[in-house]
Amino acid sequence: MKFQKPHDIRRTQQFGARPGEAMGEQRYQELMRGLNHLFQETEQDTQAEKRVERQRVIEEINALMRLHGLTMEDICE
């Protein structure tokens, strides 16, 4: 006898369809909009993280330049 995992009713309710049931066009479009929104949020988060990291690196470079008495002319040589 093979053990079968009990059906998770929460998953069915979350996605609005029973297992094996075809998804309607309206539900498909709704899910695609949600997925697109998620990708946009992720991209915005990534860009914000990059801006924060870039600012941190600039501040670190400026601190090192002050510590060692370097100017832009010294750096560009």
Q: What are the key terms here?
A:
single chain, 77 residues, mainly alpha, rod-shaped
SSE blueprint:
Blueprint: H1 9-15, H2 25-68, H3 72-76
Beta fraction of the residues? under 5%
User: Could you state the order of secondary-structure elements as H and E?
Assistant: HHH
State the total count of DSSP E strands.
0
Shape designation: rod-shaped
Number of helices: 3
Low-confidence stretches: none
Mean pLDDT: 84
Q: What class do helices, strands and sheet pairing give?
A: mainly alpha
Major sheet attributes: none
Instruction: Give the N-terminus to C-terminus distance in angstroms.
Output: 77 Å
Radius of gyration: 26 Å
Q: Which range best describes the helical content: under 10%, 10-25%, 25-40%, 40-55%, 55-70% or over 70%? A: over 70%
Describe this structure in words.
By secondary structure, the protein is mostly helical. It is 73% helix and 0% strand. The chain contains three helices and no strands. The protein has helices spanning 9-15, 25-68, 72-76. The longest helix has 44 residues, at 25-68. 0% of the residues are buried. The mean pLDDT is 84.
Quickly describe the structure:
The protein is mainly α and 77 residues long. 73% of the residues lie in helices and 0% in strands.
